[in-house]
Amino acid sequence: MSTANSRDGEVSTLRIEGEMTIYRALELKQLLLARLEESAALEVDLAAVTELDSSGVQLLLLAKREAQARQRELRLVAHSPQVLEVFDLLNLNAHFGDPLLMSPQPS
Amino acid sequence: MNLDQALQTFIVESRELLEDMEAALLAVAQAEARDEAVHAVFRAAHTIKGSAGLFGLDHIVAFTHAVESVLDLVREDKVELSDELTSLLLACCDHIGTLIDAIEAGQLEADAAMNERGAPLVEQLRRHLGAPAAPGALALAEDSPDASAIERIEGEAGHSDHWHISLRFGRDVLRNGMDPLSFIRYLGTFGTVAAIVTLADAIPAAEEMDPESCYLGFELAFDSDADKTEIEGAFEFVRDDCRVRILPPHSRIWDYLRLIEELPEENAKLGEILLHCGSVTAHELQAALAAQSSAGATQKIGAILVEQRAVRPAVVEAALAKQNQVKESKAQESRSIRVDADKLDYLINLVGELIIAGAGVDLIGRRAHLPDLRESVATMSGLVEAVRDSALQLRMVKIGATFNRFQRVVHDVAREIGKDIALAVSGEDTELDKTVVEKLADPLTHLVRNAIDHGIEPAELRAQRGKPARGTVRLNAYHDSGSIVIEVGDDGGGLKRDRILAKATERGLVEPGRTLNDGEIYSLIFEPGFSTAEQVTNLSGRGVGMDVVKRNITALRGSVDIKSEEGVGTTVTVRLPLTLAIIDGFLVGVDKSVFVIPLDMVEECVEFSAEPGRDYTNLRGEVLPFIRLRELFELEGAAARRENIVVVRHAGRKVGLVVDTLLGEFQTVIKPLGRVFSQVKCISGSTILGNGDVALILDVAALIGDTERLAAPRLAA
């Protein structure tokens, strides 16, 4: 359960690994908001997210709103199957507006 | 928050529910209290589905939902509960059981193998869903336990329109262990979420936002044939943590307006959301909002609101009240507590020690000639006895539960081999020790299978013999002089005496030419490897069954007996001691030793008188063989001048035990003999007397057995 960070010029990348659930909600909130401050755009890599619950969804929504308020860009990329399922369930794709790439994975 | 413990409870309860489901299905098959049984099956499936939904076990929810749908049709008499459907439902029960087993093993999601097994079942269930109404179907039952009757009218609207569900989850939802996602997923199991809008407006500024609180709301358009109660039921567990509003299809525009007014968000935005969900059309919304602003319209809304308020809360209240009623009645049924078996054993151990300690005090009182003390001790002993009895009662379970499990065995096996067999059960209230019940299950199963497989003849043969086409297997249980007796009987062809004798002779178990009585011949089938079955089925006939049965029962200090009549039937009688820990005993002295005889078996005591050299005496005209314990245990010392005979009885046979002194009643704890002495016959345990001496407990059954064996050659001689 770890996260990885990197910065490349104007875009920061935050790779979230493991569960994005209430158990890590506090930790992730601080992380997301902190990273958001670092550069003009933050790319959140969700490929390694194994579970997403409502608190995780809330954090993403919060991050999106904060990004807009602070005139920054938030991009969600490489949605894992679990993330996709939740986004589909709650019809959040349009809200975030990120392009979805679905890799051919066995379901 | 301990999910694991909750999951464990779910597993245990689901298994119990599955047992209920199975029992109810078999009861329906036997056409007893049909309606009630169908309701019971439905309730069990419904509860499993609901609980599984809470844990997010979607694969169980999906499968159980399919089962529930079919059961719903059966409940409304739209589908007939045929034999075939019953078998299908039993198979579904088993499949759910397998899923639960997988959960127990830690596998919380479905895998390919499970899906493969479940797919054909679901397929068959679907076929039943499309079935036409059964001929002569009755009208809906008036007193269905569900409150579905109330809202059914609204639910039967066409598919084109849908329900509108508005959810505003409370702050503590996540902290209380629920997740809005699972509720929305659950909705998806009995309908389709046609549209959904997630509302995050309630999320406060970043610094104030508590990541563990829930600020989410949802507006959904929900397509389903379910009724309002069912949809409300989906949110039952989060009723306190979420504001749920449900608008049925074809709701009037005023209903939507009221919804908009009630919700915290901006009216215009809400209107847009409703539009997005397709719950209202743009035209309707515009017209309504415009009309709302004029004075006249407000009055109209007011009037309608009053009317709505009058109707809806009343309806919801009635539904809730009925739900509570059902819950209460269910709670009354289960006024029991789960107890750890180890804790119970510990308690019984302590009670045993208490009894021994009490005996010690009594002895002191006797020696010190303190009548006051003795009186108090007597009161105390009475109380200790009562505690002892209660403690032992805790371990007693009714054998009915075990017997009823055989309904399923008989049902399945009979179908498998194509015979029509019914199971008749009696004496279900007979109680016996829990461990004994558990150890009995296997031997009994084998005996029942034997009865079905070899006992009951094929239909044509039965017809020839003038027997009813349906064979009967009987299970009976009762208490008899300190033992519990269990009978497995059948009205089949009986044991073939000559065939058994021939086979035994062939195998060298019996010398040719030796005469045996019927009882002895039948007992031969307990020899290992013995079988006269002409065909070996996968149930029995290989000859590995009966000797294992006998061994298991002997290990429980019991005995097995067979009575049979060719062409009529067979009865196997199993006899087991009642309780294993504490017994009421009768103390006797022989030479310097003290022995304990189980009081249950003591019939009477008489003075010893017999012709010298003979081993029997005249008991009021009856011949009573006796055993001299002094000789049996090779105790030295001269015989006392006056000896006594204690007459004991077991399994209908009487024997006298010759002892020196009679020392009175004594309740005692059986302490098992060490492994060194386990081969010693005639002694079943030991105990400690009040003065600290050790007394051996006699195994009366073995003694009686010995007498017969010893007597036989002498008679022959």
Can you describe what's shown?
The complex is a heterodimer of chains A (107) and B (717). Chain A has helices at 25-38, 54-69, 81-90, 93-96; strands at residues 3-8, 11-20, 41-52, 73-77. Chain A is α/β, with parallel strands linked by helices. Chain A has one domain (3-96): 2-Layer Sandwich (Transcription Regulator spoIIAA), CATH 3.30.750. A 4-stranded mixed sheet of chain A has the order 1-2-3-4, sandwiched between helices. In chain A, α1 (25-38) packs parallel to α2. The model of chain A has no long low-confidence stretch (mean pLDDT 83). Chain B is of the alpha+beta class and 717 residues long. Chain B has 5 domains: 3-129, Four Helix Bundle (Hemerythrin (Met), subunit A) (Up-down Bundle); 149-331, Alpha-Beta Plaits, CATH 3.30.70.1150; 341-395; 397-577, Histidine kinase-like ATPase, C-terminal domain (Heat Shock Protein 90, 2-Layer Sandwich), CATH 3.30.565.10; 582-716, SH3 type barrels (Roll), CATH 2.30.30.40. Helices cover 48% and strands 20% of the residues of chain B. Chain B contains 22 helices and 21 strands. In chain B, the strands form 5 sheets. Chain B has a 5-stranded mixed sheet. Chain B has a 5-stranded mixed sheet with strand order 19-12-13-21-20. Chain B has a 5-stranded mixed sheet with strand order 14-17-18-16-15. In chain B, α3 packs antiparallel against α4 (83-104) and α3 (58-75) packs parallel to α5 (112-129). The longest helix of chain B is centred in the middle third of the chain and has 39 residues, at 295-333. Chain B is elongated, with a radius of gyration of 36 Å. Chain B starts with a helix and ends with a helix. Residues 131-160, 295-319 and 713-717 of chain B have low confidence and may be disordered. The interface between A and B is medium-sized, with 22 and 25 residues.
